[in-house]
Specification:
single chain, about 500 residues, alpha+beta, SH3 type barrels, Alpha-Beta Plaits, five-stranded antiparallel β-sheet, 16 helices, about 15% strand, elongated
Length: about 500
């Protein structure tokens, strides 16, 4: 009882192995998984040998096993050869073929191999085609819905309205938005913004109006509407908003945000803020942090967002207690005295700084100063926490330090007139007290000891920055305190 009794089967096996090896060698690195089907067919080819062993009394067992072996080997050979053409060759000059099409091709080749095996077994052509037609009709009726989904899946892949990881709106409902995680024979699977797992039949999806938020460009536009008082010129409001959006989470620099005057309302002038982001899955966070940035930026400029007004009749007005100016100055003076280097100032000088300068509030993750920009002031942290970072040319940003209440920054630009040497970002909501150059010059004239201390502080921070960025061997580290002191005196004309 020989199952493997001819050299033809052996030749087919060798050819199938060589074709599979050829595919492995020539296929692009990320596409070798396509070989799973022909490899599985080869691994299954020895199994028909068990049929005569399990059914020794059956006269046709040996013949059936032989034909089954030839069928499996032929199917593997055909798939490997066709995949070499469509994957190894075609995909090197054109775009990759979708998986569903490769699956269809693989199944079709299995059908070709089966028909060939039956033909070799002596099945008449008329019987073969008649049986195939009846079988096709029965399967088509039983699987009409499934086949409809398969056909729709093929159409989706052919038209390519979306791909994996694209964000789409899959029907007319605005809330039905999700990220595509799988496209298979029957359905397309998405994860919505609410992290819901949704399976959409391909037949339904093929008839729907699909909106792709990821293509043709990888970004999507977001719209915000901000209202500001009529008393503030529109161009000033627009400039503040655009500056606030710089560096905000998810907001792209290109395409750049835009702000236009949209309407005149009862509350004030309405501005239409348009920004672009690639963080579509976190669009709520993008919008929220942009609104936070805009609120704090307007507040620092003294621009209050108006609220809706209603006519109210009062029988008695309640007295509103305001904090006396002297109390505010006293509290600011106390904070300045605890701010490190300013602690050596006289009470008079501290009170002068407290009265001539104001505190400003910054949102979490908002940049207070930016590296390379001009600056004429230093800042003292009165609440919150900031991180100091610097970006060397053609390198990633380096974090230098974290500063807390009482610490100060920006002194180099204030004292020497140089552009900002680092970027300082608020870690949480942070209030800072800004000391301007005009107010500081008079103090330097009267307290030269402060000048020397600032010179040493600037030198130390300069060294720390250079060591973090370039290493201790940098030549600029040799600058002495007297050198920096001379630069400060020259800048202030002292």
């Amino acid at each position: 009882m020989l199952v493997w009794d001819d050299t033809e089967t052996t030749r087919q096996l060798l050819c199938a192995l060589l074709a599979l090896l050829l595919f492995f060698v020539t296929a692009p690195g990320g596409r070798r998984w396509v070989a799973r089907s022909p490899l599985l067919l080869l691994l299954l080819s020895p199994l028909p040998v068990l049929v005569p062993l399990l059914f020794p009394s059956a006269h046709s067992a040996v013949g059936f096993a032989q034909q089954a072996i030839r069928f499996l080997i032929l199917a593997s050979l055909l798939q490997s050869l066709v995949f070499v053409v469509f994957v190894s060759v075609w995909e090197r000059i054109r775009e990759p073929i979708p998986k569903i099409f490769l699956d269809v091709i693989g199944i079709a080749l299995v059908g070709v191999a089966l028909v060939t095996a039956l033909w070799e077994a002596g099945v008449a052509a008329g019987e073969l085609f008649a049986g195939s037609a009846v079988l096709t009709a029965v399967l088509g009726f039983a699987l009409r819905d499934t086949l409809g989904n398969v056909a729709a899946g093929l159409a989706i892949h052919a038209e390519n309205p979306f791909e994996l990881n694209d964000w789409i709106q899959y029907d007319e409902h605005a809330e039905h938005v999700g990220r595509v995680i799988e496209i298979n024979w029957r359905a397309t699977k998405v994860i919505t913004l609410d992290l819901a797992y949704v399976i959409i039949p391909n037949s339904q999806l093929a008839q729907a109006s699909i909106r792709n938020f990821t293509k043709p460009d990888p970004w999507s536009r977001r719209s915000l509407f901000i209202v500001a008082p009529y008393e503030v010129p529109p161009q000033k409001v627009q400039s503040v908003i655009l500056d606030a959006l710089r560096g905000s989470f998810g907001v792209l620099d290109s395409p750049a945000p835009t702000v236009v005057t949209n309407d005149y309302t009862d509350r004030g002038i309405e501005y239409w803020v348009r920004l672009f982001t690639t963080e579509f899955g976190q669009r709520d966070r993008v919008d929220g942090m942009a609104r936070d940035r805009i609120f704090y930026a307007l507040a620092r400029k003294g621009i209050r967002i108006p609220v809706s007004t209603h006519q109210v009749r009062l029988t008695q007005l309640a007295e509103v207690a305001e904090t006396p100016r002297v109390t505010v100055i006293a509290e600011r003076t106390r904070r300045l005295r605890s701010a490190g280097i300013l602690g050596m100032l006289s009470q008079e000088h501290l009170e002068r700084l407290a009265s001539e300068n104001d505190e400003q509030t910054y949102a979490a993750d908002e940049q207070i100063i930016r590296q390379g920009e001009p600056g004429t002031s230093m800042f003292i942290i009165t609440s919150g926490e900031v991180v100091v970072g610097v970006r060397p040319p053609e390198k990633e940003r380096v974090q230098l330090s974290r500063l807390q209440v009482g610490d100060y920054f920006g002194e180099m630009s204030l004292m020497t007139g140089e552009p900002r040497s680092a970027t300082v970002t608020a870690m949480v909501e942070t209030r800072v007290f800004e000391v301007t150059r005009t107010a500081f010059r008079e103090i330097l004239e009267q307290q030269p000891g402060l000048l020397e201390k600032l010179g040493e502080t600037i030198r130390r921070r300069f060294i720390e920055r250079e060591e973090a960025v370039e290493g201790a061997g940098n030549q600029q580290l040799g600058e002495t305190s007297s050198d920096i002191l001379s630069r400060i005196k020259e800048f202030f004309g002292l």
